[in-house]
Amino acid sequence: xxxxxxxxxxxxxxxxxxxxxxxxxxxxxxxxxxxxxxxxxxxxxxxxxxxxxxxxxxxxxxxxxxxxxxxxxxxxxxxxxxxxxxxxxxxxxxxxxxxxxxxxxxx
Length: 107
Hints:
By secondary structure, this protein is an all-alpha fold. It has one domain: Major Prion Protein (Orthogonal Bundle). It contains 4 helices and no strands. Helix 1 packs across helix 2 and helix 1 packs parallel to helix 3. The longest helix is centred in the first third of the chain and has 39 residues, at about 1-40. It starts with a helix and ends with a helix. The model has no long low-confidence stretch (mean pLDDT about 90). It holds the Pfam family ATPaseInh_sub_z. InterPro entries: ATPase_inh_sub_z (IPR009945), ATPase_inh_sub_z_sf (IPR038293). This is DUF1476 domain-containing protein.
């Protein structure tokens, strides 16, 4: 029975690591999206940092990416930047790849 218990613990540990990595990738992706949007709005470095943090925080409003997309599209539109959901979704997808790459390189 020890072998089965060891396998179960290993599976649970892998699940926890994968779950943590997914969370970290999403948070990094959202931060990168905030930096991308801040660049579009021509914010200062201090404003960019604060805005990127606000985008990460926006992800905790509801499950999924809709809260982040809604925030970024709304902020870009309010700043006079011509954008739409598709543009932000495309940036989100591209930045997800970059976020995973950055986290894997940091290991």
